[in-house]
């Protein structure tokens, strides 16, 4: 399997505090990966670096077949390369309808002039409806997304990610605040998405990770502590000491 | 696949109908054209108000929709006024100079005419040379192009520098204010080439139109202002109505998220900042011939702050809200500060509105911000909520209340 994203030896320091410490990470082009680790381990910061929000002090972030250097690009350029991101806290545009949210995310030309002269085709409309169906919001299309329940907002955000048709999806704690039934729906969405693209999921909940049934990377104090199947890493003594044994 | 523009924007149709009705009504009642009920100066006031409504639309686009609290849009408005004012003043002065030399024994040379114009225009600032920036002042076409180009380029360069370094929020407001202040201070100088604090005057006299009385001219400008406002409204409704509107409202609410969707946020801000600067400039170019005079004080940051207050009171994020706010507040302001409002004697103290109006305005602004963030425009949600779902054919148009208030204030 070819490598889609290769992060090697990155470090970042905030006011003298090393949040990421010589971290390396790789993922293939159609792979599901879970990242676990205690609070403050640097999981969110890692995503910040890959998506261009935070610049690392050192290290490399290499993308795709052409081995492009992502560190030279800004957030929107990186997003256009095909990296989508879901934040820890659901961030949808609350003042706009579910339909508008999805339409904005749909993979289309992004320049101001293209968008100004954009005319919605029947095809785009169908696509939005299809996505809404997939995330279970078909009946809510015309509602303001601010009126949605917490779990529905999380799904809408996942729907917006899928609409972007990214090659890599970074998902930060998608199941936070969800009921068991909602969690299951979320798991299915992510497993389904990972069939055609790379998906990285940060999650605290072990049960959730188990259901994802994929390779797991354990972060601790800004670097990778262990990697492998869930059973493999949970048997690792270091992991038990710092994380599971607490 | 999509419904027609007016089907998606019923308020645009209502607005244009009301605006046309209003303009016709004023024309019929005006001194110059009809019943002589409305004085020429009142017609000019109303025409100017329409221009203020147009710049309020620009402010609403940039602030209400895109979240950039610009305190610089009156600078673009003023620049637009200056650019057209240069042609008006130059050509008008030329006519005067030529006619005063007509009786001389020898026909005047081009140089003599030029010297005459220079002395006439720049005598007040102790000069007689025509500065380089007046190079195109004898060409209406060139100056009209500059109305768009000068403010447009200024906005483009300023916006590029500011947005590129990701200055946002209060800092951006302060930066735009600094730009406005710098421009005003520059224009105040006598050697700025634009007559310092004297500004440009006599702009109400259109060159070559001596035979047309001001009462007629005022109607022309009223119609021109109404047409510009209508076009501005349509343009704004078109810009915010589709996906572009979604993106800029997204930028207003959470610009980082828009970036992660792959949109180049800085490009969008620059686009909207520049387009609205041009709209403001066109509004200014129509305003000052009706005002007759422009000077640097008009560009001072306070004007742009008023603009923000109008839009907030009218209701941000809806185009007719901005129009209502600008029309309502500026006309009420004219009434209070013009000495028409009766003083209130309290026995121990007399409230003189000329002094107290600003305080009243400030309090209203605070009250609206705290208690009615949707502004006057929010009232239409109430009406709509009551007569919903059929909002078509509602004859009380969005701007009509404001325009009625206009008439009431005469
Ligand atoms: N912008 C920032 N400034 C200062 N410290 C930060 C910043 N972002 C993250 N940190 C610190 O870096 C560490 C890692 O944070 P984070 O990546 O959010 O952890 P996680 O997502 O694994 O819980 C934390 O100790 C956090 O306080
Ligand atoms: Mg985190």
Please estimate the helix content of chain A: 25-40%
Q: Number of helical segments of chain B?
A: 15
Distance between the termini of chain A: 36 Å
The pair of chains with the biggest contact is: A-B, 32 and 24 residues
Determine the strand fraction of chain A and express it as a percent band: 25-35%
Any idea how many domains of chain B? Answer: 1
What profile does the largest beta sheet of chain B have?
Answer: 2 strands, antiparallel
Radius of gyration of chain A, in angstroms, nearest whole number: 18 Å
| Domains of chain A (count) | 1
CATH architecture of chain A: 3-Layer(aba) Sandwich
Give the amount of beta strand of chain B, in percent.
under 5%
Strand adjacency order, main sheet of chain A: 6-7-8-3-9-10
Taking pLDDT < 50 over at least 5 consecutive residues as the criterion, the unreliable ranges of chain A are none
CATH fourth-tier homologous superfamily of chain A: P-loop containing nucleotide triphosphate hydrolases
Largest beta sheet: strand ordering of chain B? 1-2
Total E-strand runs of chain B: 4
Order of helices and strands of chain A: EEEHEEHEHHHHEHEHEEHH
Mean pLDDT of chain A: 92
The end-to-end distance of chain B, rounded to whole angstroms, is 48 Å
InterPro entries (chain B): ABC_transp_permease, ABC_transptr_urea_perm_UrtC, LivM-like
Subcellular location (chain B): Cell membrane
Membrane topology (chain B): Multi-pass membrane protein
Keywords (chain B): Cell membrane, Membrane, Transmembrane, Transmembrane helix
Question: How would you portray this structure in words?
Answer:
With about 250 residues, chain A is of the alpha/beta class. Chain A is about 35% helix and about 25% strand. The model of chain A has no long low-confidence stretch (mean pLDDT about 90). With about 400 residues, chain B is mainly α. Chain B has 15 helices and four strands. The C terminus of chain B is likely disordered. Chain A: This is Urea ABC transporter ATP-binding protein.
